Amino acid sequence: MKIVTVGLGYIGLPTALMFAKHGVNVVGVDISKNIVQQLNQGIVQIEELGVQELLQTVLEKKLFQASLVPDHADAFIIAVPTPNARDQYGSCDLQYVKKALDTILPFVHFGNTIVVESTISPRTMDDVVTPFFEEAGFEIGSNLFLVHCPERVLPGNILHELVFNDRIIGGITPECTKKGKILYQTFVRGELLETEAKVAELSKLMENTYRDVNIALANELVQIGTKLKINALDVIRLANRHPRVNLHQPGPGVGGHCLAVDPYFIVAAAPKEAKLINQGREINSSMPQFILKQVVKIMEMNSGTKITILGQAYKGNIDDIRESPAIHIAEQLRLLTEYKIAIYDPHVQEENDETLKQAFEGSDLVLVLCDHDEFKKIAVENIQLMKTRMAFDTKNIISNGMDFDNYYTLGNIFQFESTKKKEIRFPF
């Protein structure tokens, strides 16, 4: 069997390599000449456990090749980005999916299976992908098989979850679903869940929307707790001792290619009905502004001038900065000329201003925006380099917070009061 995967990013590349690992001849297609060249040289540009080693293995076995153009194959997998469109609701921008369809069309033949793994808005397979191939002369479910199989993996553990997670196989017709199931049986050990394409599309979006809304509830609780001077983290800890309660943890906002993006696809598809989903997005999008205001208050309290930001990735132990609230917070703080900003992230090297030691030197506040393992314990010698030993840990991860003179979290941020009444408005 031969497969062409279109898109060699955080999902497309591990998926391509996993098929190759299981004996499938795979051609991975990407528009970036640099990515294609580096992959064929055995160099991976993303930080993901085991991917580098797996690439080396399948290259040696000649089961994987990166290319700028597709080839004839038995199946095609589309794993390209689907960002928010710049419209009222942030709908699904399908330009990359449509370009991928155009790119593979000359190589598609009767009997092929075409899978869209990219996260797409409800009814995209029915209303966009199916008509595209029907206009090209194919009969869906008879001589061409269309499937939506959304990825559902955790960055940092993708290779494991590709194999062991259950997968939703949504075909345009029952025969399409069967073909998709045969394809993914190549390596998936989780259950293959058969359904319609439109159900698969909305199921994927709701998986991420559930988490986004739950985080929004926790973030709203933080704002309520700050107003009422009640420790929101203690509230969550105690509420979660109820056997049927599972409040998520709050943070500086929601990032990544899923939670910060996908709920808008539902809102755009049914704006009058998706009231709660839209409000959850508004709450989470407001958290960077909330964090910024707390930072300004802390700095006013001691007339501080330097802020050390720890973390720019959207989640811990990965290098992914897509939609990261930490990036937005850092950008806004840089606009305030009264502060010097030092940034350090061991996983996102290109974002670093200084070494970790330099970032701490003369600092008045350590602002933790990402839960990397490296930040769970702050070396005392680095704390001693600070001018004012204060920390604002928005991820509640520092185990030795008592080594700071003042250690604030989203639970106890209300404990300080600014001596000034300066109001700073940020432009987002």
UniProtKB/TrEMBL annotation:
<dbReference type="InterPro" id="IPR008927">
    <property type="entry name" value="6-PGluconate_DH-like_C_sf"/>
</dbReference>
<dbReference type="Pfam" id="PF03720">
    <property type="entry name" value="UDPG_MGDP_dh_C"/>
</dbReference>
<keyword id="KW-0560">Oxidoreductase</keyword>
<dbReference type="Pfam" id="PF00984">
    <property type="entry name" value="UDPG_MGDP_dh"/>
</dbReference>
<dbReference type="Pfam" id="PF03721">
    <property type="entry name" value="UDPG_MGDP_dh_N"/>
</dbReference>
<dbReference type="InterPro" id="IPR014026">
    <property type="entry name" value="UDP-Glc/GDP-Man_DH_dimer"/>
</dbReference>
<dbReference type="InterPro" id="IPR001732">
    <property type="entry name" value="UDP-Glc/GDP-Man_DH_N"/>
</dbReference>
<feature type="domain" description="UDP-glucose/GDP-mannose dehydrogenase C-terminal">
    <location>
        <begin position="308"/>
        <end position="400"/>
    </location>
</feature>
<dbReference type="InterPro" id="IPR014027">
    <property type="entry name" value="UDP-Glc/GDP-Man_DH_C"/>
</dbReference>
<protein>
    <submittedName>
        <fullName>Nucleotide sugar dehydrogenase</fullName>
    </submittedName>
</protein>
<dbReference type="GO" id="GO:0051287">
    <property type="term" value="F:NAD binding"/>
</dbReference>
<dbReference type="GO" id="GO:0016628">
    <property type="term" value="F:oxidoreductase activity, acting on the CH-CH group of donors, NAD or NADP as acceptor"/>
</dbReference>
<dbReference type="GO" id="GO:0000271">
    <property type="term" value="P:polysaccharide biosynthetic process"/>
</dbReference>
<dbReference type="InterPro" id="IPR036291">
    <property type="entry name" value="NAD(P)-bd_dom_sf"/>
</dbReference>
<dbReference type="InterPro" id="IPR017476">
    <property type="entry name" value="UDP-Glc/GDP-Man"/>
</dbReference>
<dbReference type="GO" id="GO:0016616">
    <property type="term" value="F:oxidoreductase activity, acting on the CH-OH group of donors, NAD or NADP as acceptor"/>
</dbReference>
<comment type="similarity">
    <text>Belongs to the UDP-glucose/GDP-mannose dehydrogenase family.</text>
</comment>
<keyword id="KW-0520">NAD</keyword>
<dbReference type="InterPro" id="IPR036220">
    <property type="entry name" value="UDP-Glc/GDP-Man_DH_C_sf"/>
</dbReference>
<dbReference type="InterPro" id="IPR028359">
    <property type="entry name" value="UDP_ManNAc/GlcNAc_DH"/>
</dbReference>
